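User: I'm putting together a small comparison set for a docking exercise, and I want a reference complex before I start. The sequence is below, and the ligand is zinc ion. Could you produce the 3D structure with the ligand included, as C-alpha cells?
Assistant: Of course. I'll restate your input first, then give the C-alpha cells for the complex.
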Amino acid sequence: MGHESSVPLFWRLIKPRYQLIGTKCTSCGNVFYPPKFLCPVCRKEGKLEEIKLRKTGKILTFSIIRSAPAGFEKETPYPVAIIELDDGPKLTSQIVDYKEEDLKIGRRVEACFRRIYTDGKEGIINYGLKFRPA
Amino acid sequence: MGHESSVPLFWRLIKPRYQLIGTKCTSCGNVFYPPKFLCPVCRKEGKLEEIKLRKTGKILTFSIIRSAPAGFEKETPYPVAIIELDDGPKLTSQIVDYKEEDLKIGRRVEACFRRIYTDGKEGIINYGLKFRPA
Amino acid sequence: MKVAVIGIGVTKFGEHWDKNLRELAIEAGAKAIMDANIRGSDIDAIYLGNMSAGRFVGQEHVAALVSGELGLSIPAVRVEGACASGGIALREGIFSILSGQNDIVLVGGAEKMTDLMTDGVTTALMGAADQEWEAYYGLTFPSLYAMIARRHMFEFGTTREQMAKVAVKNHHNGSLNPIAQFNKEITVEEVLNSTMVADPLTLLDCSPITDGAAALILCKAELAKKYTDDPVYIIGSGQASDTLALHDRRSLTTLDATVKAAREAYKQAGITVKDIDVAEVHDCFTIAEIVATEDLGFCKKGEGGKLIDEGATELNGRIPINTSGGLKAVGHPVGATGIKQAVEIVLQLRGQAEKRQVKDANIGLTHNVGGSGATAVVHIFSR
Amino acid sequence: MKVAVIGIGVTKFGEHWDKNLRELAIEAGAKAIMDANIRGSDIDAIYLGNMSAGRFVGQEHVAALVSGELGLSIPAVRVEGACASGGIALREGIFSILSGQNDIVLVGGAEKMTDLMTDGVTTALMGAADQEWEAYYGLTFPSLYAMIARRHMFEFGTTREQMAKVAVKNHHNGSLNPIAQFNKEITVEEVLNSTMVADPLTLLDCSPITDGAAALILCKAELAKKYTDDPVYIIGSGQASDTLALHDRRSLTTLDATVKAAREAYKQAGITVKDIDVAEVHDCFTIAEIVATEDLGFCKKGEGGKLIDEGATELNGRIPINTSGGLKAVGHPVGATGIKQAVEIVLQLRGQAEKRQVKDANIGLTHNVGGSGATAVVHIFSR
Ligand SMILES: [Zn+2]
Ligand SMILES: [Zn+2]
C-alpha cells in the first residue's frame, strides 16, 4: 500500500478486516460490508448494528495483477476480484489457492485468513481476508 | 525534507542551489533569487536572464530549530535565517560556523557550499549553500 | 449557464525531466494569458486542478504557489477530485464568475508525476481509490479498470480487439497532435501483444505517466467580445459522485456518475447527445472510453465496442471522440487532463485543430472522471 | 453578498486513535444535517476542506469518499489551500449558491493527523511552505513563525510574555469549550518554560497535532427561514494570496494577504473593523494571533502585543478573540480549522456559546491562514 502507516491506522480496522464483521441497518434491513458509520439509505433515521457475515460468495469480476504497487512486488502475479457475498455486500480482495480454471465470473469462493503485506517502513505485517475456491 | 525524492527533482535545481544563480529582468531591472520563470512584475513584457549573485548579505531574522523534520534530526539544534543578499533578493537557509553572538538581526554573512541532508530512501546526498558570518 | 473561454494554453505533455511543477503550471498559464490577450492583472482569481502534488513532489498549497510566481495576490484555489481535478477546477471557475464575484478567471490543471519512480506513482494514484478497502488488498488502477473490462466482456460480449482499436484510434489522433506524449501510430496486434499489466489490459491499454499543465482564461459571457472575436462558450456543466470503492456501486459496467453528470450538462445546455459534434472523453484505459461512449449516450449500453468497430468515433466519423489523442496518447498528468480536454474542444470549435480538425464543429463535450468513477464531470461547449 | 448558515456540526478535537478520516467527516456532517433539520437528500453539493489526506492517511479524493459514505451522488469537491483549506471550502460553497447552481450545500473540513508519527507530520506540514526553497533547507513551520516573531520583536518591541499571554488566554477559553483538545488553564511561566521548539517559540506557543472535523449547512438566504428561525448570515468574504515562501514577501511582520482579504470582506459587508463583536483568528502560533489582530485592524501595526496586555481580546474585553480557544487550545486539524472557526462564530451569534458567550454578539469574523501567509481568507457573519 506504500503509505508510511502507523499502528492505529491498522488495528482500528482489525475487527471488520479479520472477521468479516459488517453493519446492518435495523430500519431498512440493508447489510453493509465494509461496515458503515451511517446508513447511506436512511441516514439519520437509520440504526446500525454489527453483523457477522457468512464467509461465502461468488466472483463478479477479476483481474490478475502483474505490475504491483509498493509492498506487493514479490506477490506478482496475483489475482484480485470483486466478490458478492451470499449475505449481499460486495467487496474487493485477492484470490488464493486457485487453479487457472477457478478464475471465472460466477465461481464460488470462501474467505480465509491470510497475510496481506508487510509494511516496508515499520515492518508491520498486515493481515486480512483473502478468498479461495469453495 | 522527507519526500521520497528522485534524482531529477534535485539536479534540476543544482545550478541555482550550488552557485547562487538567479534571474534578472531586463525590462524592470529586478533581480530574483530563487530564480523565476516569469518576471512577476512585467510578466509577458519581461525578459529574464541569468545572473550570478554576490555571496554576501545580512540576516533579517532567524530561529534555532530544536525539533526537526525527517532527515534533519541529527543536525539539531541548527539555526535558520532569512538573509537579504547585497544584490537585493532574500532567501532562506541555514547559518553555520557561528558563535552565539553571530545570531542577530543585521549580522553580515556569506554563502558557503555545504551538505544539506541525506535523503533517507535513496541515500542521495543533497548539497547547497549555507551562510556563515562574514 | 453561459461563460466564455477567451484563452487557452498547454505545455507539451510527456516526461519533463528538466521542469518542475511550478514551471509547467506557469508556462501553461502564461500561454493562456497571451492567447487571451489580457494582462495578468486583469485576472480576478486562479483555480488549479491538481491531484497529488503532496505525494508526487512533496508540495501542497500549489494554487498559491502559482499565483505568487505570476506576481499576483488574488484568490488562488486548488481543487482536487483525483483525475477529475481539472474538470472540477473548471466548474469552480465557472461558478465564481456566475456568482458575480469574478469577471476573469485563470483555470489551470497541472501534475508533475515523473519525479517519483513507477511503483511510487502506482501507489500514489491509488489515493484516488478507497485506501482502506481497495488499496489495502494490493489493488492498482489498471486492475480496477481491468475488472470493469472483464465484466463488460462478460455482460456485453465486448472484445479485446475492440479495446485495442480505441488505443489505435487515439494514437493515430495523437500522432497529429504536437503536444502529445506519443506521436507514433500503433496496431491492434501491438496492443494485444504488449506487456500484460492487469489481465485483460496490456500496457498499451493504459494511459502513461505524464508531466504537463494546461490552462484556460474564463470570462463573463457579456465581456467576451471585448477580448476576442471568437469566444467559445461553456453552456452546460454537470458533476456527480458515486462510492469511492468500485465494489460498492450499483453496476460494474456503467459509471452512474457519468450518466448523471451528462444528464445535468445536457439539460443546462438545452441539447441532446445528438447535437454533440466532437467529444473528449476520459480514456485512462481503453475500456473507459468504451464505457464512456455508452454512458454519455453516444450509443446504447453495451454497444460501445460496436461503435468503435464501425469507425463512428474516428476523426471523420459520425461522432469523433478524443481527437486530441485522449489520455491514452497525449498522456495523463492527472490534474491537468480535464483542462487539456477543454483546450482541445476550444481548438476544435475555433477551427484551429489543424490536421485533427473535425468538420463543422459547433458543439463539443468534455468528460472527466476521478478514480474508478467516484467523480464525473461533463461540460458542453458551443461556438 | 448574503448566504445563510442553517446548521453546524463539529467532532471533539484531539487524538482520535479509534476513528479514521471518513468517520470524523461523517460525524461532523451528520451533526450539521441534524442541526439544520434537513434531510440528506436536500443537499445539492459538498465542499470539503482538507490539506493533506494524501500524506497523512494515503487517501486523496476525500470529498467523493464523504459523499459516498453519506449515500449521496451529488457534486463533491475537495478544496485545498494548506491550513486555509476550510476557509476556502466555505467560500466555494458560498459561490456555488450565489451562482444559482445550488440551494443547500454541506461545507466541511476534516483532517486526520495522528496516523503519522510527529516527524512525519512536521514534514507533511511543510508541504504548505515552499518545498524547494524552504523545506529543502530543513525549515519547519514553527521556525517560519519563529522568524516572524523574532522580526516582530525587533521592529516593534513585542515580548515573549505578550506571546505567552495569547496562549494563556486561549487555553482559558478552551477550558470552557467541550470540543477543545486542551481543557487546562496554563500560566505565562509555563509557556515560557516549556520545551523550546524553534527559538523564540516554545511548545506552548504552538498549536498541537489534532484529528477533527467540522461542518456547516449553507443555504440560499431567501430560503433560510424555511428551515430555522435563527439563521446566521455570511455577509462578506475575502481571500488573497502572497508568495509561498516567507522570504519573498514585502514584509516579514505583516501578512499582506490578511490585510487584503479583510479589506475585501469588510467592503462586501459594508462594515468597518469597529463593527466586529467577536472574532476567530488564525493562531497556529501565538505570534500569529498578535500579527493577525494588527493586520485585521483591531489595533495599529506593532501594537498587537499591547492589545493582549490590555486584556482587550479576552472574553469580556473590547474585542474578544478566539473565544473557542483558537487553534492553540481547541487544536488544529489543518483542513478543519477554517470551518471550526465558523462554527464558533455561529454559536456566538446564536447565543449558544454557553460559558464562552460574548455579550451582544451581532457581527463576527473568521480569519484563516494557509502556510506562513500565502493564503488568507476572511469571512464576516451577521445575525
Ligand atoms: Zn437504513
Ligand atoms: Zn520585470
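Chain B is about 10% helix and 40% strand. The two ends of chain B are 28 Å apart (CA to CA).
User: Thanks, that's exactly what I needed.
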